[in-house]
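wait is this the right file?? whatever heres the structure
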């Protein structure tokens, strides 16, 4: 049975993260140890990741070995079809048209004008995160881009209310790729998970077969390190 998120996520708010992995069982061992997640069957061959009984992420097997091993951030929308049209009209691209995921909701995949990939989620019975902003859960998404002006215009136009509306708390920001990564790194979203002890979490990542991509650095939203799991999926750890 799906435990719904307690919140209703407004359009443009990050509402879910999922990992596409070659080996879901290996992913369960890695993230279960790192974040204290437990797991249960979800849709198809995917699994829910739970913390304290609440859904916090999902792990899915790659359907094609040529697909990247990645974490994807999805943004809430009441109408994935309409948002897809706006994305296309403003220079982005819909790479996977909206499709139903049982009664859970409607998903789609898109890119911004620079090619950074993100998901869309139109909620059905599954609204999104059951818990967030706590240790072991999603806390922030950072867009690394080469053209901050274009990114500001694109996302500001798409998600104006989430970014600038009264009481806005978008849970995502943007930075230049070269602030953290080599210049050849393509633009991308990086999911951040909160931890209580960043140094201890980095030790666990390495012990579990992952690696540190970028050692700890200070940001306006906390102390961050970028890591990969034991299959190569990148994500960030954030201590606030």
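ok assuming it is, sequence goes like this
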């Amino acid at each position: 049975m799906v435990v719904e998120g307690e919140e209703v996520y407004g359009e443009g708010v990050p509402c879910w993260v999922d990992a596409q992995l070659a080996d879901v069982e290996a992913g369960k061992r890695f993230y279960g140890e790192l974040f204290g997640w437990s797991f249960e069957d979800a849709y198809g061959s995917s699994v829910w990741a739970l913390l304290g009984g609440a859904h916090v992420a999902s792990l899915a097997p790659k359907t094609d070995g040529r697909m990247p091993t990645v974490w994807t951030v999805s943004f809430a929308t009441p109408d994935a079809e309409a948002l897809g049209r706006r994305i296309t009209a403003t220079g982005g691209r819909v790479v996977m048209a909206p499709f139903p995921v049982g009664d859970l909701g409607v998903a789609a995949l898109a890119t911004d004008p620079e090619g950074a990939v993100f998901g869309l989620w139109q909620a059905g019975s599954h609204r999104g995160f059951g818990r967030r902003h706590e240790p072991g859960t999603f806390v922030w998404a950072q867009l690394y881009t080469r053209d901050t002006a274009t990114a500001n215009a694109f996302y500001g136009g798409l998600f104006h209310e989430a970014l600038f509306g009264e009481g806005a708390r978008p849970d995502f920001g943007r930075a230049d790729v070269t602030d953290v990564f080599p210049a050849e790194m393509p633009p991308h979203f990086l999911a951040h998970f909160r931890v209580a002890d960043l140094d201890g979490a980095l030790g666990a990542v390495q012990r579990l077969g992952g690696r540190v991509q970028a050692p700890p650095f200070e940001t306006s939203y906390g102390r961050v390190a970028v890591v990969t799991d034991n299959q190569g999926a990148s994500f960030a750890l954030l201590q606030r």
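Confidence is low (pLDDT under 50) at residues 1-5. so i think its the right one actually
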